[in-house]
Amino acid sequence: MRIRATVAAVSGALALSALALPSAAQADGAHGSTGSTAELARAAQSAAAPSAAKAGARSAAPAAEPGPLDLTFSKFTINGGKPLVVGTTYTKRVPTTFTVTHAANVDIFAEDFMLEVGLYRGSFDNPANEFYGDDTPVCKKVSATVATCKGNIAVYPEFDLFGNADATKWKAVGYAVALNGQDPEDVDPGDIGFVVQDNLGTTLVQRASKQTVNASPEPVKKGKTITVTGWLSRANWDDFKYHGYTSQSVKLQFRKKGSSTYTTVKTVKTNNKGDAKTTVKATVDGYWRYSFAGTSTTPAATATGDYVDVK
């Protein structure tokens, strides 16, 4: 079962009966990396001395001792550098990669060692929302102190999205926890090793968009006027439906039959329902489409060309 991570500082023992604890290197296909690592790391940070810094705290203490671990995250990437685009129904899952550098006495492949990289928006101490993966990251040993890891970020729209305000820039944060032999169902945060490292990177989370087109009449006599209509819409995370994207510029483009290149004929603005409409003269067979360039909250969208036969 996928569990939403709580972001408040936790005190006392955490029940982890729903959490499987495979090692990072053996986690292929395993479920359970759902923010519980973050909960534990936050709880341990709260229980630790105030000197435990949130941004990659390092310590010379052996891994078997509680407190900040000598471990850092670096080279974080998400979705190949592209924004995370989410619709209204289907789970969006994108890959992450990162490197872990650690002291030789920190065994990230131990059965009771947990790694997690997540996204959050808002402040670090009081996030407005958080995303995590639904699989434990899989790590590969590069040397005695370096490993490269692959994971994912998964967004279940109706469970993870808190409204359209989630369409903004998010920050990445890394967590690591060494349970130090504790029973995973009865963990004392004050007795675990931990790392909480902020500012690994950023990504945009965007509302998925759609663009349609219809050119008519078809066929049409040469030199006669055709009307090209279309609808630009985007995901609304308040009611999980698609609504028209209003007052946006969309380009009417044409591709002549036999050509592979579209050229822009004119630019049209969508109305208060997201509709675009204009007229042009038909002179030659070809395809008509609308193309939307995108905004910071909404990705680009281009309709599939509608063919018009000119007689």
From TrEMBL:
Residues 1-20 form the signal peptide. Keywords: Signal. It comes from the Bacteria. The keyword Signal applies. This is Calcium-binding protein. It comes from Streptomyces drozdowiczii.
